[in-house]
Amino acid sequence: MNHIVTVQDAVTAFADFMEPTAAELDAVEREMPVVLADVELLDAQIVTLDRTPNEVDARRIRRARRRALAARVALVNRTAGRSDGAA
User: Fold this and answer.
1) How many DSSP H helices and E strands does the chain contain?
2) Most exposed among 46, 50, 60, 68, judged by the fewest C-beta atoms under 10 Å?
């Protein structure tokens, strides 16, 4: 018995609607500083998972947390100034 899902995937695998639109790519580009700041924060936190954080680790986490917060604030300020209703 053939499942219709496999046939459907083969038919729609390269359909135009499956590609991101220019607006979606712009949104990803706008959010990239937040994503990178969050990755940096996660890296700092992962380092301390198997040990007690020392002063350098604590500073690195605080710095990364501030950068992540600043990136989020900058994103909110940029999107609040947009007039096209995009969030």
Assistant:
1) 3, 0
2) 50
Which tokens is 39 given? 């990755």
* CA–CA dist 55, 35 (Å, integer): 25
pTM: 0.69
Backbone angles phi, psi at 59, to 5 degrees: -65, -40
With H, G, I as helix, E, B as strand and everything else as coil, classify residue 85: coil
Give pLDDT tens digits along the chain (87 positions): 565 555 555 555 566 677 888 999 999 999 999 999 999 999 999 999 999 999 999 999 999 999 999 999 999 998 887 765 555
Separation of alpha carbons 44 and 73, rounded Å: 21
